[in-house]
Amino acid sequence: MNGPVISRAQAIADARRALDRARARRDADRAAGRLAPEIELICRRLERQQRAARAATAPRRAA
Question: Rounded to whole angstroms, how far apart are CA atoms 61 and 45?
Fold first, then answer.
């Protein structure tokens, strides 16, 4: 159990890199129309929720 220790920052960077690769694959599959219809619906629902959350937290500008 005395193997090399990965720093927290390195572990986070590695996880982010893996997540970015997965997102890129998903986006490429989506753009090519290779996602299953139910997965496409899930993606659209999540995007709507994200837009609504951003709109709710965005600062209001006076007209």
Answer: 27
The predicted structure's pLDDT at residue 63: 59
Q: Is 59 exposed, middle or buried (0-12, 13-18, 19+ CB in 10 A)?
A: exposed
Q: 């890199």: which residue's tokens?
A: 17
pLDDT digits (tens, 9 = 90+) for 7-32: 999 999 999 999 999 999 999 999 99
CA gyration radius, the chain? 18
The residue type found at 20 is: D
Residue 43 contacts residue 30 (beta carbons within 8 Å): yes
Q: Does 52 have pLDDT greater than 70?
A: yes
Report the C-alpha gap between 63 and 54 in whole angstroms.
Answer: 19
